[in-house]
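Exercise 7. Predict the structure of Major facilitator superfamily (MFS) profile domain-containing protein from Yaniella flava.
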Amino acid sequence: MTMALAVIVGAAHGRSTHAIVLYEAALGLGMALGPLVGGTLGTISWRTPFLGTAIMMAIAATTVALFVKPLPKPKPVPLTAGFAALRHRPLLLWSSASLLYNFTIICMLAYAPHALTGAAAASGADYTSLTLGLVFFGWGTALAVCSLALPGPMIRYFGLVPAILIALALMAAMMTVLALNTHSMVMVMTGIIILGGLQGMSNTMFTEAALNATDVPRNIASSAFSGFRFFGGAMFPLVSAPLITLWGAPGPFWGSLIVLTAALVIVATGFRVLPNSPLQRGRIFTRVASSAPAHTHSPGA
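Solution. The predicted structure, encoded as C-alpha coordinates:
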Protein backbone atom coordinates (compact mmCIF):
# COMPACT_ATOMS: atom_id res chain seq x y z
CA MET A 1 0.00 0.00 0.00
CA THR A 2 2.83 2.37 0.83
CA MET A 3 4.57 1.69 -2.47
CA ALA A 4 1.32 1.96 -4.43
CA LEU A 5 0.60 5.44 -3.06
CA ALA A 6 4.19 6.57 -3.73
CA VAL A 7 4.06 5.31 -7.33
CA ILE A 8 0.62 6.79 -8.05
CA VAL A 9 1.61 10.19 -6.67
CA GLY A 10 4.88 10.05 -8.61
CA ALA A 11 3.00 9.29 -11.84
CA ALA A 12 0.45 12.07 -11.34
CA HIS A 13 2.60 14.78 -12.98
CA GLY A 14 1.56 17.53 -10.57
CA ARG A 15 -2.07 16.38 -10.19
CA SER A 16 -1.48 14.73 -6.84
CA THR A 17 -4.88 15.74 -5.43
CA HIS A 18 -6.69 13.78 -8.17
CA ALA A 19 -4.32 10.85 -7.69
CA ILE A 20 -4.92 10.75 -3.93
CA VAL A 21 -8.70 10.86 -4.34
CA LEU A 22 -8.68 8.06 -6.94
CA TYR A 23 -6.26 5.99 -4.85
CA GLU A 24 -8.42 6.22 -1.73
CA ALA A 25 -11.62 5.59 -3.72
CA ALA A 26 -10.12 2.50 -5.39
CA LEU A 27 -8.90 1.28 -2.01
CA GLY A 28 -12.40 1.70 -0.60
CA LEU A 29 -13.98 -0.08 -3.57
CA GLY A 30 -11.65 -3.02 -3.08
CA MET A 31 -12.51 -3.09 0.62
CA ALA A 32 -16.19 -3.07 -0.34
CA LEU A 33 -15.99 -5.94 -2.80
CA GLY A 34 -13.53 -8.02 -0.74
CA PRO A 35 -15.89 -8.85 2.14
CA LEU A 36 -18.81 -9.51 -0.23
CA VAL A 37 -16.80 -11.87 -2.44
CA GLY A 38 -15.11 -13.40 0.61
CA GLY A 39 -18.42 -13.91 2.41
CA THR A 40 -19.93 -15.54 -0.67
CA LEU A 41 -16.93 -17.83 -1.18
CA GLY A 42 -16.91 -18.57 2.56
CA THR A 43 -20.31 -20.24 2.25
CA ILE A 44 -18.60 -22.89 0.06
CA SER A 45 -15.58 -23.57 2.27
CA TRP A 46 -13.25 -21.66 4.56
CA ARG A 47 -10.49 -22.34 2.01
CA THR A 48 -12.13 -20.68 -0.99
CA PRO A 49 -11.71 -17.02 0.12
CA PHE A 50 -7.93 -17.58 0.16
CA LEU A 51 -8.08 -19.10 -3.31
CA GLY A 52 -10.15 -16.12 -4.49
CA THR A 53 -7.57 -13.72 -3.07
CA ALA A 54 -4.75 -15.57 -4.84
CA ILE A 55 -6.60 -15.30 -8.16
CA MET A 56 -7.17 -11.54 -7.70
CA MET A 57 -3.51 -10.98 -6.85
CA ALA A 58 -2.55 -12.83 -10.04
CA ILE A 59 -4.92 -10.61 -12.05
CA ALA A 60 -3.46 -7.49 -10.41
CA ALA A 61 0.13 -8.56 -11.15
CA THR A 62 -0.76 -9.34 -14.76
CA THR A 63 -2.50 -5.98 -15.15
CA VAL A 64 0.55 -4.11 -13.85
CA ALA A 65 2.90 -6.07 -16.09
CA LEU A 66 0.81 -5.47 -19.24
CA PHE A 67 -0.60 -1.98 -18.86
CA VAL A 68 1.49 0.11 -16.45
CA LYS A 69 4.23 1.98 -18.29
CA PRO A 70 7.61 2.07 -16.55
CA LEU A 71 8.19 5.35 -14.75
CA PRO A 72 11.43 7.32 -15.10
CA LYS A 73 14.00 5.97 -12.69
CA PRO A 74 14.03 8.26 -9.63
CA LYS A 75 17.17 9.67 -8.13
CA PRO A 76 18.77 7.31 -5.60
CA VAL A 77 17.80 8.09 -2.01
CA PRO A 78 19.14 6.55 1.20
CA LEU A 79 17.05 4.00 3.07
CA THR A 80 16.73 6.51 5.90
CA ALA A 81 15.05 9.17 3.70
CA GLY A 82 11.58 8.33 5.00
CA PHE A 83 12.68 8.63 8.62
CA ALA A 84 14.51 11.88 7.86
CA ALA A 85 11.33 13.30 6.28
CA LEU A 86 9.55 12.96 9.62
CA ARG A 87 11.86 15.65 11.02
CA HIS A 88 9.61 18.13 9.23
CA ARG A 89 7.12 19.09 11.91
CA PRO A 90 4.06 19.47 9.66
CA LEU A 91 4.57 15.98 8.22
CA LEU A 92 5.19 14.58 11.70
CA LEU A 93 1.99 16.26 12.93
CA TRP A 94 -0.21 14.63 10.29
CA SER A 95 1.62 11.30 10.53
CA SER A 96 1.19 11.19 14.32
CA ALA A 97 -2.51 12.05 14.16
CA SER A 98 -3.00 9.52 11.37
CA LEU A 99 -1.18 6.85 13.40
CA LEU A 100 -3.83 7.24 16.09
CA TYR A 101 -6.68 7.42 13.60
CA ASN A 102 -5.44 4.26 11.81
CA PHE A 103 -6.05 2.42 15.08
CA THR A 104 -9.77 2.80 14.35
CA ILE A 105 -9.44 1.36 10.84
CA ILE A 106 -8.02 -1.89 12.22
CA CYS A 107 -10.66 -1.82 14.96
CA MET A 108 -13.28 -1.97 12.21
CA LEU A 109 -11.52 -4.66 10.22
CA ALA A 110 -10.29 -6.87 13.06
CA TYR A 111 -12.74 -6.42 15.93
CA ALA A 112 -16.05 -5.17 14.51
CA PRO A 113 -16.83 -8.61 12.99
CA HIS A 114 -16.55 -10.12 16.48
CA ALA A 115 -18.78 -7.37 17.87
CA LEU A 116 -21.28 -8.10 15.10
CA THR A 117 -21.27 -11.81 16.03
CA GLY A 118 -21.89 -10.95 19.68
CA ALA A 119 -24.67 -8.51 18.80
CA ALA A 120 -26.34 -11.14 16.59
CA ALA A 121 -26.24 -13.66 19.43
CA ALA A 122 -27.65 -11.10 21.89
CA SER A 123 -30.40 -10.12 19.44
CA GLY A 124 -31.24 -13.70 18.47
CA ALA A 125 -30.71 -12.86 14.80
CA ASP A 126 -29.45 -15.21 12.09
CA TYR A 127 -25.81 -14.64 11.24
CA THR A 128 -23.66 -16.16 8.47
CA SER A 129 -20.45 -15.33 6.65
CA LEU A 130 -22.59 -13.75 3.93
CA THR A 131 -24.18 -11.43 6.54
CA LEU A 132 -20.70 -10.32 7.54
CA GLY A 133 -19.79 -9.82 3.89
CA LEU A 134 -22.86 -7.67 3.23
CA VAL A 135 -22.23 -5.44 6.26
CA PHE A 136 -18.62 -4.83 5.29
CA PHE A 137 -19.67 -4.36 1.67
CA GLY A 138 -21.71 -1.46 3.04
CA TRP A 139 -18.70 -0.27 5.07
CA GLY A 140 -16.38 -0.41 2.06
CA THR A 141 -18.91 1.18 -0.29
CA ALA A 142 -19.37 4.08 2.12
CA LEU A 143 -15.58 4.30 2.41
CA ALA A 144 -15.18 4.49 -1.39
CA VAL A 145 -18.03 6.92 -2.09
CA CYS A 146 -17.22 9.31 0.74
CA SER A 147 -13.48 9.31 0.03
CA LEU A 148 -14.33 10.42 -3.51
CA ALA A 149 -17.25 12.78 -2.99
CA LEU A 150 -16.93 14.52 0.38
CA PRO A 151 -13.33 15.74 0.97
CA GLY A 152 -13.44 18.43 -1.75
CA PRO A 153 -16.62 20.17 -0.53
CA MET A 154 -15.60 19.80 3.12
CA ILE A 155 -12.19 21.40 2.52
CA ARG A 156 -13.61 24.20 0.34
CA TYR A 157 -16.29 25.11 2.87
CA PHE A 158 -14.58 24.60 6.23
CA GLY A 159 -10.87 24.51 5.41
CA LEU A 160 -8.59 21.48 5.72
CA VAL A 161 -7.85 21.55 9.45
CA PRO A 162 -11.45 22.26 10.57
CA ALA A 163 -12.74 19.57 8.16
CA ILE A 164 -10.41 16.97 9.67
CA LEU A 165 -11.37 18.02 13.20
CA ILE A 166 -15.05 17.64 12.30
CA ALA A 167 -14.44 14.18 10.83
CA LEU A 168 -12.50 13.06 13.90
CA ALA A 169 -15.22 14.38 16.22
CA LEU A 170 -17.95 12.55 14.26
CA MET A 171 -15.94 9.31 14.38
CA ALA A 172 -15.50 9.72 18.13
CA ALA A 173 -19.27 10.17 18.47
CA MET A 174 -19.96 7.03 16.42
CA MET A 175 -17.46 5.00 18.46
CA THR A 176 -19.37 6.08 21.57
CA VAL A 177 -22.64 4.93 20.00
CA LEU A 178 -21.11 1.54 19.15
CA ALA A 179 -19.63 1.14 22.63
CA LEU A 180 -23.02 1.79 24.23
CA ASN A 181 -24.96 -0.53 21.90
CA THR A 182 -22.88 -3.69 21.45
CA HIS A 183 -26.02 -5.70 22.28
CA SER A 184 -27.98 -4.36 19.29
CA MET A 185 -27.24 -5.89 15.89
CA VAL A 186 -29.01 -3.06 14.06
CA MET A 187 -26.97 -0.39 15.83
CA VAL A 188 -23.68 -2.22 15.30
CA MET A 189 -24.42 -2.73 11.60
CA THR A 190 -25.46 0.90 11.16
CA GLY A 191 -22.46 2.21 13.10
CA ILE A 192 -20.00 0.14 11.05
CA ILE A 193 -21.38 1.47 7.75
CA ILE A 194 -21.48 5.11 8.92
CA LEU A 195 -17.92 4.83 10.20
CA GLY A 196 -16.92 3.55 6.76
CA GLY A 197 -18.05 6.85 5.25
CA LEU A 198 -16.31 8.94 7.89
CA GLN A 199 -13.11 6.91 7.61
CA GLY A 200 -13.12 7.17 3.81
CA MET A 201 -13.46 10.95 3.98
CA SER A 202 -10.71 11.13 6.60
CA ASN A 203 -8.35 8.88 4.63
CA THR A 204 -8.35 11.27 1.68
CA MET A 205 -8.05 14.42 3.80
CA PHE A 206 -5.22 13.06 5.94
CA THR A 207 -3.24 11.94 2.88
CA GLU A 208 -3.86 15.26 1.13
CA ALA A 209 -2.78 17.15 4.25
CA ALA A 210 0.40 15.14 4.75
CA LEU A 211 1.59 15.35 1.14
CA ASN A 212 1.01 19.11 0.98
CA ALA A 213 2.54 19.87 4.38
CA THR A 214 6.18 20.14 3.28
CA ASP A 215 8.40 20.54 0.23
CA VAL A 216 9.73 16.98 0.69
CA PRO A 217 9.45 15.04 -2.62
CA ARG A 218 6.00 13.50 -2.84
CA ASN A 219 7.17 9.91 -3.16
CA ILE A 220 9.31 10.20 -0.02
CA ALA A 221 6.63 12.08 1.93
CA SER A 222 3.97 9.53 0.98
CA SER A 223 6.13 6.56 1.98
CA ALA A 224 7.09 8.21 5.29
CA PHE A 225 3.48 9.10 6.05
CA SER A 226 2.05 5.71 5.09
CA GLY A 227 4.71 3.69 6.86
CA PHE A 228 4.37 5.72 10.05
CA ARG A 229 0.58 5.61 10.21
CA PHE A 230 0.47 1.82 9.86
CA PHE A 231 2.03 1.59 13.31
CA GLY A 232 -1.38 2.69 14.55
CA GLY A 233 -2.86 -0.45 13.03
CA ALA A 234 -0.09 -2.48 14.66
CA MET A 235 -1.08 -1.07 18.06
CA PHE A 236 -4.63 -2.40 17.93
CA PRO A 237 -3.97 -6.17 18.17
CA LEU A 238 -1.59 -5.51 21.04
CA VAL A 239 -4.13 -3.63 23.18
CA SER A 240 -7.46 -5.12 22.04
CA ALA A 241 -7.37 -8.07 24.45
CA PRO A 242 -6.57 -5.89 27.51
CA LEU A 243 -9.36 -3.50 26.46
CA ILE A 244 -11.85 -6.39 26.28
CA THR A 245 -10.65 -7.63 29.67
CA LEU A 246 -11.06 -4.15 31.13
CA TRP A 247 -14.38 -3.07 29.60
CA GLY A 248 -15.86 -6.18 27.99
CA ALA A 249 -17.25 -6.18 24.45
CA PRO A 250 -17.31 -2.35 24.16
CA GLY A 251 -13.61 -2.15 25.15
CA PRO A 252 -12.03 -1.74 21.68
CA PHE A 253 -14.60 0.92 20.80
CA TRP A 254 -13.79 2.84 24.01
CA GLY A 255 -10.10 2.47 23.10
CA SER A 256 -10.82 3.90 19.65
CA LEU A 257 -12.64 6.82 21.27
CA ILE A 258 -9.56 7.54 23.41
CA VAL A 259 -7.13 7.53 20.46
CA LEU A 260 -9.49 9.67 18.34
CA THR A 261 -9.61 12.19 21.18
CA ALA A 262 -5.80 12.17 21.27
CA ALA A 263 -5.71 12.76 17.49
CA LEU A 264 -8.12 15.67 17.92
CA VAL A 265 -5.86 17.21 20.55
CA ILE A 266 -2.75 16.79 18.38
CA VAL A 267 -4.35 18.49 15.36
CA ALA A 268 -6.11 21.22 17.37
CA THR A 269 -3.01 22.19 19.34
CA GLY A 270 -0.33 21.57 16.71
CA PHE A 271 -1.84 23.06 13.56
CA ARG A 272 0.20 26.26 14.05
CA VAL A 273 3.27 24.50 12.62
CA LEU A 274 1.46 23.98 9.32
CA PRO A 275 2.30 26.15 6.31
CA ASN A 276 -0.07 29.09 5.80
CA SER A 277 -1.82 27.90 2.67
CA PRO A 278 -5.24 28.66 1.15
CA LEU A 279 -5.92 24.92 1.52
CA GLN A 280 -6.13 25.43 5.29
CA ARG A 281 -8.87 28.05 4.98
CA GLY A 282 -12.44 27.44 3.87
CA ARG A 283 -15.28 29.73 2.85
CA ILE A 284 -16.36 30.26 6.46
CA PHE A 285 -12.88 31.45 7.44
CA THR A 286 -12.67 33.67 4.36
CA ARG A 287 -16.08 35.26 5.02
CA VAL A 288 -15.23 35.92 8.67
CA ALA A 289 -11.88 37.44 7.74
CA SER A 290 -13.38 39.64 5.00
CA SER A 291 -16.19 40.87 7.27
CA ALA A 292 -13.82 41.87 10.09
CA PRO A 293 -13.66 45.67 10.49
CA ALA A 294 -10.50 47.21 9.08
CA HIS A 295 -8.36 49.11 11.57
CA THR A 296 -7.15 52.52 10.46
CA HIS A 297 -4.28 54.37 12.02
CA SER A 298 -3.44 58.05 11.97
CA PRO A 299 -0.12 58.98 10.35
CA GLY A 300 1.36 59.74 13.75
CA ALA A 301 0.31 56.48 15.36
